[in-house]
Amino acid sequence: MASDAMVAYDNFKGYMGDGTIDMDGDAFRSGLYLSASNAGTRGVGTGLLADLTSEHANANGYLTGGIAIVSPTYTEPVAGTWMFDFADFAPAWSASGGSIVARWGVYWDDTPTAPADPLIGFVLMDDTPADITVTTGNDLNWTLNASGVYRLSGAET
């Protein structure tokens, strides 16, 4: 199973540009959303976590509200190119008492309170597209691209 690259939500660049999202100073989270969710819609609502529907239920090893992103960094690895990255989720979630089923992985900024929880981007967890199912006793490991979660470069970005 291969996942797609992260897709930025439409309001993300605006929130980053106006300082609502501080890529190298804020705390970030990631959560799982079901196939019925609107999480895969770039222009969802006002670009806030509260706009999303159908997060995975608080069950089977998944806690609603997702998990904290560990070791986020925002660096300039090459002149004129900025990269947002963080540690791989391994394991991110361990299924117990039933399966964890999801289609979308979502990243958001957990620090701002007004507006609260601006969205960064989403990932289609299986590019077939299909739901992923993690059965009891197994882990969902989420390995990120070695070149970072996303990169910003050039005037056309």
TrEMBL record:
Full protein name: Uncharacterized protein
Organism this protein belongs to: marine sediment metagenome
